[in-house]
Amino acid sequence: MDKKILVIGAMGQIGSELVLELRKIYGNENVVASGRSSKSPDESSKEKGPFEVIEALDKEQIRKVVEKYKINELYHLAAILSATGEKDPKTAWTINMDSLINVLDLAKEYNLRVFWPSSIAVFGPTTPKKAPQQTVLEPTTMYGITKVAGELLCSYYKDKFGVDVRGLRFPGIISYKTLPGGGTTDYAVEIFYECIKKKEYNCFVSCETTLPMMYMPDCIKSIIQLMQAPKENLKHVCYNVAGISFSAKELADEIKKSISCFKCSHEPDFRQKIADSWPNELDDSEARKDWNWKPDYDLKRMTADMLEKISEKLGKQG
Fold this sequence. Notes:
By secondary structure, the protein is of the alpha/beta class. The chain has 12 helices and 14 strands.
């Protein structure tokens, strides 16, 4: 059967790059991008293939697109992230949970394979600092609460209705193409832009704050690899997936190797408490064993690529 793919939240940080890669693999006409609005700074998703306006809270709107394009695989990326969710917890719950139930209900009805991203936000202060695949999930943010509830919902729909739903517990995602959208790990992207523009950055977490991160090419690779894996190989609904773990100081020091005049100061805000509640590292041995996961980027390679690409993007020399 040919893939007919719908990406909900295609204008976001992950979605904008995932759509392009999926179209390379499966053909432009077989990958439908969607967003809440037809207006977007990134027009590539609309120029190179089908695009539909979808409000993820409107189940019937999603249904019409599923039927119109005969969708059999759906990537549900629309969500309110951690820092933004703390400012409006009720909206975060509504958008993150109701949209997921809509997708899972339609997956049951139309036999869709679903990808849904979880997050390190499912963990909390009681989780070991190197978080194993199966561990304590006691988050301290509304975003984390919705991700724990989402994991349980996905497991429920898989066990009760046979829905083929697959997820990844992502660390912080670093990308030069699309600016982050209100997450606690956003500093790891902001630092590159501020370094190139101003040669200085005031970081909102402390210098010793160490968090798991992942460069966008590895993020996209992990999604596609998981979705292509044989169903019988998958023992978990949501897998830990790791890229690089580093402290804010280690990242700044790596940047200074290329831009020696760069200065990084630290002024922790409310996001520090969120960062402190998360693990320093993810144990992704189950993903490596079940579907041969392995990241391509380390801190040095990622930093060099980010500096080069953002310098090009901003029209300046790094």
